[in-house]
Amino acid sequence: MSQDSLTARYRPQTFADVAGQDAVKHILSRAAATDRVAPAYLFSGTRGVGKTTLARIFAKALNCQSGPAAEPCNQCPVCRQITLGAAVDVVEIDGASNTGVDNVRRLKEDVGYAPLECRYKVIIIDEAHMLSKAAFNALLKTLEEPPGHVTFILATTEPEKFPQTILSRCQHFVFKRLPQARLAAHLDWVLAREGVAAEAPAVHLIARRGAGSVRDSMSLLSQVLALGSASLTLHDVREVLGLAGQEVFVRLVECVHGRDLLGLHALLTGILDQGVDLGFFLRELASCWRNLFVLQQLGPDVRSIIDLPAEEVDVWAAWAPRFSLSHLHAAWQMTLDSQRKILTSMEPALALELLLLNLASLPDLLAVGSAEARCAQSRPAAGGPGQNPGQGPDPAGRAGHNAAEHSAPRVPSRPHTPSRSGPGPQAGSPEPTVATPAQPASGPGAAAPQSQPGRPAFAAATSRPESQIRERQAPFAPAPGGSAGGPAAGPGAAAGSGQNWSGFVRFCASASDGGRPFLGLDKARGQVVGGELVLATPHAFLRERMQGSLSRLADLARQYFGTSLTLRMETVVEAPRKTRAELKDMALADPVVQEVQGRFQARIMEVRPVTNAHPKENDT
């Protein structure tokens, strides 16, 4: 009884018999026919695509007694010896077993001798990437300038491991995977030679499982034929190879669409009990989402690019409109991202179950993401339309952080603190560059209006909670229609057209000394009150630096505002930081958190203050 495998029995013996690799076959056949042989060749590609087979055929074409010829005759003694692996001048070396420099040294000695029976000595090194660095270095000179009667053929699945010095000395040919249709045609040819009838879907499934490798496909075919059935059926292929059928994926998609978690669990149990190949199952699942996505996006015209029977395409075409495009895209991406994690997990069954449950929960996850974005965009600014004057701080303390990420900078909502001498901020008014102090300042301009609408008192601004003091988008930007100090806010306002605190900070940074004495000035707050520039910062270190540079700051202030100003430092009292219990209460009151808890039956275990979330979030 013959023990030859299908792979060995039907190994091609001529260039024409090799499936695929048309460009490489043409180049090698022409080189053999014209006797223009390169010193070294490098064949790279995935397993089972014909690298060693073409190397042997090339060796026969070079040494055939009827040659040089484009095809070996396979009848002469030399061709028969090479086919049997008995030719003394065609040497096949396993790179994994001959990795050392001593093996290469013996090879170099043998290369120097003329061939005994053939025209060329052909040295075939399989899995050549396994050679050591020293062995590669020992081969360099021989590969570049071998004797005229020698050629090297290096075969590898990992060309990236080759030194560039080796690659530059070889003609490098990249072997491609076979298309599924070409691979199925090759399997049909083998089945015809074996006299076995086969169902077309069964052959296509083996070809798809082979993933472009002829040897893998032939091994799978041998495994199925060992069942001893009179014909090759789709049921036998799935039963022997442990492959899930289309009905499994249709049922899975149905459970995902209906969010049937119990159905998914039962389906997964059946898959595991049948011993399904999880790697191929995940590949097929990713293909299902891909097919649904392209059918939803491109419609019926895309049928030609889906490599499935027409009846299967009809099934997926009926399912595609039932999903949103975002759901299909997210499911496709999630499946691809989870493949390696599941196959390398310590608990692949649990990892696969988590993936399936996440796929069913995707609509909820997408809805929560969009709801959070809408909540961040629609959260009103302080004093904005619809803002309750007595409303407290933003829930969960995320006003500054979320606004910085999702919307334009804005002033946070805060408790209303009426001015002692006038009404509070008007609705929709941004925080002004220069605010009127709660207590009159002495000196010129002390009679500046303190009850202007839209001018919150400085005392109110400095006494608000710390979580609101952190917001520094543009705390002293000019009020609409006014200049740095507002209308008639002092001499600086009259002299400057558009001067404000941020402009003054930039002016100081561009001063003749490079702004070195005033590093961190942008972290302070300033306002022109009458004839004074009032500075305030909650940072003790920065306050000491500014007090030591008051005279220089005063000179720059007079240059910038164009009038005589004196400087005065105000003390800002920091509000105590919130406890974790208070932060948790604020988080529980947040509408997005409440929605997540309701959808996923979640609960908050711990709430921590935001740290380093935004450069302006933690500067106080």
Question: How would you sum up this structure, described in words?
Answer:
This protein is α/β, with parallel strands linked by helices and 620 residues long. The protein folds into four domains: 169 residues, Rossmann fold; 62 residues, Orthogonal Bundle (Helicase, Ruva Protein, domain 3), CATH 1.10.8; 126 residues, Zinc Finger, Delta Prime, domain 3 (Up-down Bundle), CATH 1.20.272; 143 residues, GMP Synthetase, Chain A, domain 3 (2-Layer Sandwich), CATH 3.30.300. Helices cover 47% and strands 8% of the residues. It is built from 26 helices and ten strands. The strands form three sheets. It has a five-stranded parallel sheet, with helices on one face. It has a three-stranded mixed sheet with strand order 8-9-10. Strands 6-7 form a two-stranded parallel sheet. Helix 2 packs parallel to helix 3 and helix 13 runs antiparallel to helix 17. The radius of gyration is 39 Å and the shape is flat. The C terminus is likely disordered.
End-to-end span in angstroms?
A: 86 Å
Share of helix, binned: 40-55%
CATH C-level class of the largest domain: Alpha Beta
User: What is the second-level CATH architecture of the largest domain?
Assistant: 3-Layer(aba) Sandwich
Rounded to an integer in angstroms, the radius of gyration calculated over CA atoms is 39 Å
What number of domains?
A: 4
Form type: flat
What strand order characterises the main sheet? 2-3-4-1-5
What proportion of the residues form beta strands (DSSP E)?
5-15%
Average of pLDDT: 75
Number of helices: 26
Number of strands: 10
Could you state the CATH homologous superfamily of the largest domain? P-loop containing nucleotide triphosphate hydrolases
CATH structural fold name of the largest domain: Rossmann fold
Low-confidence stretches: 380-497, 612-620
